[in-house]
Amino acid sequence: MARLAIVSTYNENCGNASYTHVLKTGFSEFVDVDVLPLDLFLLQRKGSAFTRAGDAHIRAMAATLRTYDYVNIQFEAGLFGRTVADVRRRIGWLIEAAPNLILTMHRVDVDSTSRWHAAWLAIRARSFKPWKRRAGSKRYVDLYRGIIEQVGREAKHKNAWIKVHTKRERRIITDIYQMPHCFDYPLAFLTPEERDAAWAQSDMASFHERNGFGPHDKIVGLFGYISEYKGIETAVQALLELPPEYKLVFFGSHHPQSIQAHSAVHPFIDKLIKLVDEVVSSVDARERGDSRVRAVGKPIESLDEAGRVMPVPATVSPPPRLSARVRFVGNLPDAEFIEALRLSDAVVLPYIEVGQSMSGVIVLGMEAGAKLVCANNHSFAETRRYFGDTFLGFDIGNYVELAQKVQHAAAQPERSTMREARDQAYARYNIAGSIKAQLDHFQHVAEKNPHV
Questions:
Q1: Is the pLDDT of residue 128 over 70?
Q2: How far apart are CA 44 and CA 46, in angstroms?
Q3: What is the CATH number of domain 3-188+430-448?
Q4: Would you tell me which CATH number, out of the four given (3.30.300.20, 3.30.2130.30, 3.40.50.2000, 1.10.287.130), belongs to the domain 192-279+321-428?
Q5: Could you write out the DSSP letters of every residue in 128-169?
Q6: Smallest Cα–Cα separation from 350: which of 213, 209, 227, 256?
Q7: Has this prediction a pTM greater than 0.85?
Q8: What is the pLDDT of residues 257-299, one digit of tens each?
Q9: Each residue's pLDDT tens digit, 328-348
């Protein structure tokens, strides 16, 4: 039987590692599969000693790849090194060594800001930040271009392809970078049996008790790593517009790669805690009929008929802090993660636009029967091109609309989360179809494996 090597993280707290487990299971029906795990201990640390050790690790992996029939590299830049130069050098060795290659690119950027525009923004802002941001972005644009061009050169003398998860990224590679050896297929995770099991979950009482929620709590779930681009501030603001039984719950933590030495708290986590701790819910105050509360929930003075300030009566207590309605559950095993997606009253993805490829959370949420409410960014627009109207949308940053859509989702019967539309989408795009598409591009001979 043909042998396939998958180069990726594995058995790590990482989205790529979870996706690789799904791929290994799917491919194993047709070929012998080995995962060659990236050693993040060596690859993600600074210093000449770690650079040399990381290079040796990748060189040894490249030598091993030459013994396989097929190679799939799961490429995300941060997994291969701390500098662009390290990443480019190491991924280059692997691409060159793979005899029959599919390079899965989880992100592809194209230069969209000229030097002159960046300079103008810097002058207008009286800050070097726009210029530095453009320079940093340009380094990664050049990295992706170099990788794409190398695969194009390799494709002239061996079977080599790039796989992406959106039609937009395929067009960037084929139309902008002029490399035709590219195909797209959306992310996919659950087998039909796993999907049916997820949709069958309905024990809300047990889910609430196990996670410390009250029986009447409404769970608004945020899933995955806590990052700035995920628009968490919008979700916090939306919570102020919702009745007090609604709780904002984080199923996840900050990314392991964001851990900083000698830092008591990650800057964004610190910002988030302060936001949650300082904002007081005016909604709770309004529920008690207290009209002397500002939008941020702080008591204000009343005026008498003559316009004189009247003191706030001692019996008026400030409404509870928003932190009473926010929960941090942390990371969960895959089965519990899927259960939380399924049983949350609403799953919100308020992501801002940062050029992200397809989100794994939105696809897994659709497969698991989650009540999804997602920002109208380009990534989720690309998702609709495959899956259609299978989730609710709202304009980026519009926390009032988000609150309205959350209540709409929460009010829907448990099993009416666009089931028919999602069934149709799943029939078109699923993990079996993803495996089949990749085997076809590997030029896998189906006659040797009649199940394909």
A1: no
A2: 7
A3: 3.40.50.2000
A4: 3.40.50.2000
A5: SHHHHHHHHHHHHHHHHHHHHHHHHHHTTTSEEEEEESSHHH
A6: 227
A7: no
A8: 666 665 666 677 777 777 776 655 444 444 445 544 434 333 3
A9: 898 888 899 999 999 999 999
